# Entry
Amino acid sequence: MLTEQMRNILQQMPKAELHIHIEGSLEPELIFALAQRNGVSLAYASVDELRKAYDFTDLQSFLDIYYAGASVLLKEQDFYDMTAAYLARAQADNVRHAEIFFDPQTHTARGVPFETVINGIWRACQDSPVSATLIMCFLRHLPEDEALATLDEALPFRDKFIGVGLDSSERGHPPEKFCRVFERCRQLGLHLVAHAGEEGPPAYIETALDLLNVERIDHGVRCLEDADLTARLAREQVALTVCPLSNIKLRVFDKMDDHNLMRLLDAGLVVTINSDDPAYFGGYINENFFSTFDSLPLGVEHARTLARNSFSAAFLEGEAKRGYLNEVDRFFQQATATKD
Ligand code: HPA
Ligand code: ZN
# Structure
């Protein structure tokens, strides 16, 4: 059960969000507004009808609707408006720092220039009081050559993103499909992450680490199926960006009571809580905290750990990272002092 006091702590604690697909923050209302602004026709008659279609059975059933929703994004201002709306929600949830995924191939395949995408998203980040950096994701259902071509398109904008990731349909598209492009990115000094062990097997987590050299694993919840891998992740303190509401909506777990987040923490893993695609999965980052703390036996010490982990695992430099961690420590000193 989530007490009022615990809810306030989760709401107010400073946090970083490390797993958010900006296209997954596109709310139905904004999809309809942009469709009208751009003269794009949608397969749904109303916001309500679109929302009703958000009844997913697995990752692919979600991705089909997610890519359809993104089809309304055409102009730089559209990407700006979407990102500004997310950052306003993040600020309301006391997110201090966000590392935002974007999927350029979803847009360039429709004829939207790469620069339109990145300039709109990046400008909104500059205009926000929330610290925000960008991670460009490659779509793993497409061939590696297309990822390499996307990297070439991105290079003139190298200063506008800090890393690369790997997303979209996981099963049948193992990390090793992208060895060459990730090696190039590593040589360019980019940070590396990949989705692995969401629907795919624990072996994908291992190959993401060993063959792509990623620094964090997105999702990674299936690691517990392999005891040696779990021990390794704990030993090497590899952060997992877990997305609880996403896991329930996409049926990785049947219900929140069954989620393994508590077991991941108990295994000594660097777990973080994130929203993934908040417009589609029923809530932004704080809703993810509320829901997990409501269903699992988590308390204030777990909240502190999760808040600290979010900054420890962030791609932040020494001073900034220390500053945020100090802010977390001060917050919990106060929160626990006033409690007694
Ligand atoms: N998994 C894989 N690809 C994605 C996701 C996800 O949860 N969200 C957006 N693209
Ligand atoms: Zn994701």
Remarks:
- The chain has a mean pLDDT of 97.
- The two ends are 20 Å apart (CA to CA).
- Residues 123 and 242 are 28 Å apart (CA to CA).
- Residues 19, 21, 167, 195, 218, 276 surround zinc ion (ligand 2) (CB under 6 Å).
